[in-house]
Every structure is written in C-alpha cells, then in structure tokens.
Amino acid sequence: MKKLLMFCLLTSIFFNSNPFAKNSADDLPERYKKWLEEEVVYIITPLEKEIFQVLEINRQRDAFIEAFWKQRDPSPGSAENEFKTKHYQSINYVNRYFSRNAPKPGWQTDRGRIYIILGKPIDRVTYAGSQGVYPSEVWWYQLDSKTGLPPGFHLVFFQERGSGEFRL
Q: Which residue ranges make up each domain of the chain?
C-alpha cells in the first residue's frame, strides 16, 4: 500500500507543477468521476482519494486504478482479482434488489452501502410489520477479528412509517 501511494505521489510530482493542487471530482472525466464517486466510494481510503484527485493525466489515473485493485487482490498470482469481481457483483446485486423501494440506486441506500462494505450477511430475517411496528430486516454478521468490528453483530434496517427505503 505504501509503495502504491509513493508511486502515485512521485508520479504526480513529476508531471505536475503543483503536485498538491487537488482537482474536485467534478473536474474529472466522467469515467473517472464515476469510478471515484460510485464504484469505489465505500472502499477507497481518504488518502487514496486525495492522491487520485491530484493526478492530471488519464494514463496516471489508469495506472492508479490498476494498482488500487492489485493492492486488494487476495491471490495476486491468479488471473482473476477475486476482490474486484466480488465488489462489482455486490454493486450489481444491490442495484437490482435494493432500489425497489428507494428513489435512488441501490448502492446509495443504507442496505446497499452495508452490503458492499461487509458483504452478504450470514443470516437475514424480514419482519412484515404490524400496527405500531415498522417493517424491518435484521442482518447477522460474523466477521474476522482483523476487521476491527465485533466478531458477531446484528444490524437492523426499517421502513419509517411503513414504506419507502429501508434505513439503518
């Protein structure tokens, strides 16, 4: 990770007169803006985002994106980057299923954000709701202790006033 950051910073210094003049995401070409604001918005670190926004040449941005995924590849020797594949599958899943009751794409919903970050829950229970109780879903996660999260926990999503998108 440190090598990636150093590479990007040095590349930026070499090609830019002011290497710390950050571009806003709005200044980026559309495909890079989409990558930054939609595709990796939940998994890119603040430092990575800052470095990416300093880059001025598309070739640098492409190299950064390639290094970004390479850093996260759980088995670098294989032809496929399983992390990247799973990440894009998660985005497709949440856009297909979590947009139904929401006025926005599934990746922007609370359930979509959690699913993209933590993955599929081990168990998911849905409650239809009744008088005085909102429709809700309870997700159960059991994660590796390396994540810094408790080893097991529940997340509760509910539909306020009985309709609309599910909120955490």
A: 2-72, 104-167
